[in-house]
Amino acid sequence: MAHETRSIQGTVVAVTGASSGIGRETARALVEAGAKVAITARRQSRLDELVDELGPENVVAVAGDIADPATSDALVAAAVERFGRLDSLVAAAGVGMYGGVLDNSNEELTEMAAANYLSTVWNVRAAVPHLRDDGGDIVVIASVAGLRGGAHEAVYAGTKAAQIVFAGAIDRELREIGIRVTSLCPAAVNTEFALGKGRTAGDPSLDAVMVPEDVAAAVIYTLQQPRRLRTTQWALWSAAESA
Predict the structure, then answer these.
(1) Which run of H or E residues covers position 107?
(2) Which domains does the chain have, with CATH numbers?
């Protein structure tokens, strides 16, 4: 018997970090699969471009700083107001920077911790009350850095480890009400991540790593799994990298 998948056509998904990279490609992939999306990021112009591209009948956008709990609340409220429900959350927003433990300022590290970890907490707290009736999915875009760490990314890895542990804990907490929680943990992805903070645009080494469409496809696969399945953690590597 062929393995069936669950249609996500007509479902409503909130996506953070949608102005670029994984979040932006995830929004595109979701609309292509027939879902409606509510998106957020700090750059209003980027969000407006995506709404124009995908159609206002499919997308509602809320600009804001995801480190502020009010942005998560506004995102969920916009999804429910425009589309009448919320089925899933994809927490894709994040900030990255490379450097030794002494290389970045206190302000930069505080910003990264808030954008990567605390924002995930605010996303989940806003979304869960609207997922309770019919179950749902929460997909957290973390990183393999949170699984293994690495030199010159210690604080970043710590924020991603916190995301992974948080996602695992709330999966155990929320599964009794039908909510599945997944950590997707990609290795290097060719996006705007850490540009000017340890990465340089056009670096030829990025040609061999994953592209954001790869991670977006993993999000779609996760959401389309039959409800009898749950993927709690999934590490993704390019063929050129060593796990």
Answers:
(1) helix 106-113
(2) 12-236 (3.40.50.720)
Q: Are 136 and 179 in contact (CB under 8 A)?
A: yes
Examine the residue annotation and report whether 221 is marked as an active-site residue of this protein.
no
Label residues 101-110 b or e (16+ Cβ within 10 Å = b). Answer: eeebeeeebe
Residue 109 has phi, psi (to 5 degrees) of -70, -35
Q: In what order do the strands lie in the sheet with 179-186?
A: 59-63, 36-41, 12-16, 88-91, 136-141, 179-186, 233-236
36-41 and 59-63: which strand pairing? parallel
The answer to whether residue 13 scores a pLDDT higher than 80 is: yes
CB 170 within 8 A of CB 195: no
- The stretch 193-213 carries a mean pLDDT of 66
Q: How confident is the model at residue 208 (pLDDT cuts 50, 70, 90)?
A: confident
d(CA 224, CA 220): 6
> Is pTM, for the whole model, over 0.90?
yes
Whole-Å CA distances, 233 to 164, 210, 229, 230: 8, 18, 12, 9
Q: What is the pLDDT of residues 33-49, one digit of tens each?
A: 999 999 999 999 999 99
Question: Residue written as tokens 């995801």?
Answer: 66
